[in-house]
Amino acid sequence: MLRCMLTAKIHGATVTDANLNYEGSITVDEALLDITGIRPYEQVRVSNLYNGERFETYIIPGTRNSGVICLNGPTARKGLKGDKIMIFSYGYYTEEEIMNLCPVIIRLDEKNRVLK
Fold it and tell me: Which of 52, 53, 51, 34 is nearest to 42 (CA)?
């Protein structure tokens, strides 16, 4: 049996923009993707701490070290610039793989820099 488990989490990201006139997705600073192992075009779940919205979309890599977190297309209706969100990535694992699973969890400051 495979279980769906958390593989990575970006906690406390600040939405830097919301672009309604786009196909859809969430743009995330490529440096944050490298740290967490989240891949471009990977499906993610997003939770908005300010309004309780939860939605699924996919990742688009943003300019490295820019701090960009942009809600695109219909997801732009799920949050506003300045909102705090969490981005979750999940994967399917066997019982044996779960024994060694250690999700990567990062916390960000107000400029979307990793807190130590």
Answer: 34
Number of structural domains found in the chain: 1
pLDDT digit of tens for each residue in the chain (116 aa)? 999 999 999 999 999 999 999 877 999 999 999 999 999 999 999 999 999 999 999 999 999 999 999 999 999 999 999 999 999 999 999 999 999 999 999 999 999 999 98
**What 8-state DSSP symbol labels residue 75?**
G
Judge whether 93 counts as a catalytic residue.
no
Range of the domain at 84: 3-101
pTM equals 0.96
CATH number, domain of 75, equals: 2.40.40.20
Catalytic residue among 58, 66, 90, 93: 58
22 is catalytic: no
